[in-house]
Amino acid sequence: MMIPNLQVALDNNLLSDALRSASVLGNEVDIIEAGTILCLQEGMEAVRCLRALFPEKTIIADTKCADAGSTVAKNCAEAGADWMTVICSATIPTMKAAKDNIEEVQVELYGDWTYEQAQQWLDAGISQAIYHQSRDALLSGETWGEKDLNKIKKLVEMGFRVSVTGGLDKDTLELFKGIDVYTFIAGRSIREAADPVKAAREFKDEIKRIWK
Amino acid sequence: MMIPNLQVALDNNLLSDALRSASVLGNEVDIIEAGTILCLQEGMEAVRCLRALFPEKTIIADTKCADAGSTVAKNCAEAGADWMTVICSATIPTMKAAKDNIEEVQVELYGDWTYEQAQQWLDAGISQAIYHQSRDALLSGETWGEKDLNKIKKLVEMGFRVSVTGGLDKDTLELFKGIDVYTFIAGRSIREAADPVKAAREFKDEIKRIWK
């Protein structure tokens, strides 16, 4: 089993706030994400700035693209993103169009999706998926449960590299023990910690402890 | 039956191109949309500029929001958008969170959705939906058919104000005759016409001819 990556989601409203977090955390994490909120607020300038500051890091534009896959992917790639996200309800032609124009595409799993669809994504050459607890679901009291873990396991068995996100902190990692998670995505739990670097290192240490 | 609105979708890559189209077409149409491509490229500055130029028009931020509904809606409203879009695969808490922070929310119908879900959107106070042929589906040869028209009719019967979009030009309007469409959304067919103002006026004239 591989050691899962740690990804920081920069879901800031302001580019300057995102860059403040990135300057502190960028070298502590494996993957830097320009979050949807940031992309919608600041546009692809946010990705360009992250690429300028971190020329060697994997950078993701979390566009949750639903249509016009080709144009959105070209724009993300031109701005310097390695990967981008598409929403699971996008059509296969949209996903393929995106995939043809950027290195990798990740499918964001929201709402109702089926394993038949997931197989179509694999058949289209897309082998990354992101499993969420949505922020709004968490706010309304939902939490990680057995049904989530079983879905993640099944996706991994199908051949997906699965990123996991939503209300994660180092104390919730144990839940995923024994599952070949590709990446854990953390946002505010490290960005807004009193000591973000310490929080990121503890998160990584806990990943290593559980998955080594 | 009401006369359907005409909405121009500004799906430009550059703010300056979007503003060039808006300056020509803004007063010809009923609703101005900052398209997803434009929002992702230029951020909410695009909405702020459109609001500055058209203080009285209905302006939509086509964010296709999938999560963090409250933050995205606040950001759209602060930038000057009247309405925003959410993706149909967003959870009900996300949609409600968005609705609580902006005047109106429109559900973008992509992929598989059900009338049971649609009823949940209505129950959550969301009564606008956008029915698409996705750009990528159109590129791969799909077109408007009876199944699309039946779905639109059913949504209207349920109580939705339905906007229709995807490869529309004035010659395709006749297809929707007899259906209480709320808004037709046109993009390149008017924006990239040799004479955009003429194209918009012909589109509106054809709407009036069919729906009066």
Largest interface (CB < 8 Å): A-B, 45 and 46 residues
Helix content of chain A: 40-55%
**Rg value of chain A:** 16 Å
CATH topology (fold) name of chain A: TIM Barrel
Oligomer: homodimer
Main sheet overview of chain A: 8 strands, parallel, barrel
CATH class of chain A: Alpha Beta
Q: Assign an overall shape of chain A.
A: globular
Organism (chains A, B): Jeotgalibaca ciconiae
Pfam family, one (chains A, B): OMPdecase
GO molecular function (chains A, B): 3-dehydro-L-gulonate-6-phosphate decarboxylase activity; hexulose-6-phosphate synthase activity; orotidine-5'-phosphate decarboxylase activity
Protein name (chains A, B): 3-hexulose-6-phosphate synthase
Short description:
2 copies of one chain form a homodimer. The first copy, chain A, is of the alpha/beta class and 212 residues long.
Could you walk me through the main structural features you see in this protein, from its secondary elements to its overall organization?
The structure is a homodimer of 212-residue chains. Chain A is of the alpha/beta class and 212 residues long. Chain A has one domain: TIM Barrel (Alpha-Beta Barrel). In chain A, 44% of the residues lie in helices and 20% in strands. Chain A is built from 10 helices and 8 strands. Chain A has helices at 15-25, 36-42, 45-53, 69-79, 92-99, 115-123, 135-139, 146-158, 188-191, 196-211, and strands at 5-10, 31-34, 58-65, 83-87, 104-109, 128-132, 161-165, 183-186. The first copy, chain A, has an 8-stranded parallel β-barrel, surrounded by 7 helices. In chain A, helix 4 (69-79) runs parallel beside helix 5. The model of chain A has no long low-confidence stretch (mean pLDDT 95). Chains A and B meet through helix 2, strand 3, helix 4, helix 5 and helix 7 of A and helix 2, strand 3, helix 4, helix 5 and helix 7 of B.
